[in-house]
Amino acid sequence: MEVGLVNLEMRESVGETLGVLETAGLLRELTAGLIGAMDLDAALTILVRIARDGVAGVSWCGFTSLRAGEPAGAVASDTRLAELDDLRHGPDSPAMAAIGRRELVVAERLSAETRWPEWTWRARGLGVSAVISAPVDIDEQVIGALNLYAGARELLTPRHQLTAMLVAEQAGLLLAAVRDRARAVAEAGQVDVALLGESVVGQAIGVVMTQRGCRAEEAVTVLRSAASSLGIPLREVAERLITTVSRPRDN
């Protein structure tokens, strides 16, 4: 009996470790994917794809965004389900509940859900059985919700809820950096637009902005300083940084 209990505890411990490693890998992939995006829309498209593909048990992923002075926006990993993230079909939805309350919203069984009748009816008709909506704070002008959907044969567990919270928090930081970089490009003369537009250098600028919480101008200065100190071209410094960030860890 004691041996059985030990084996059970070992299996649970291994499962928890694997879960942590999977989540760490997902966040790393998310970082590597978003740092190269040059605008918010492109970044959101990458975000929903990575979340859909990287979270086991999630069949689809969407993002609902509210931007100051603009209509609400939506991005979906599957265009067939895009209407579930789009507020034009009505604001009564899990995404708006998460945005309004600034907390995780979970519906484990839509078959028994009563909070959003019309939205739930449409979701079930599209094959969705459960949803998690996690609020994402980007900056003072943009907020949103990351929406994870399960199909008929999938379940969304407490581990999915934790993963959604972690992904939403990381995404918020990265998306804020993307917004900062886009603003810097629009501010003529402050940063060399051609430099920011060069893919690998632009990605490296995003990495520095994310790591240091700084604007694009300071990130460019950091990269140029490194290039000068090492005596190598700026592009090579950028390539080394991107390679380091994107390299999978052994543990």
TrEMBL record:
SUPFAM superfamilies according to UniProt: GAF domain-like
Organism superkingdom: Bacteria
Keywords of the record: Transcription, Transcription regulation
Start and end residues of each ANTAR domain: 181-242
GO molecular function: RNA binding
InterPro entries with a match to the protein in the record: ANTAR, GAF, GAF-like_dom_sf, WH-like_DNA-bd_sf
Keyword Coiled coil: no
Name this protein carries in UniProt: ANTAR domain protein
Source organism: Salinispora tropica (strain ATCC BAA-916 / DSM 44818 / JCM 13857 / NBRC 105044 / CNB-440)
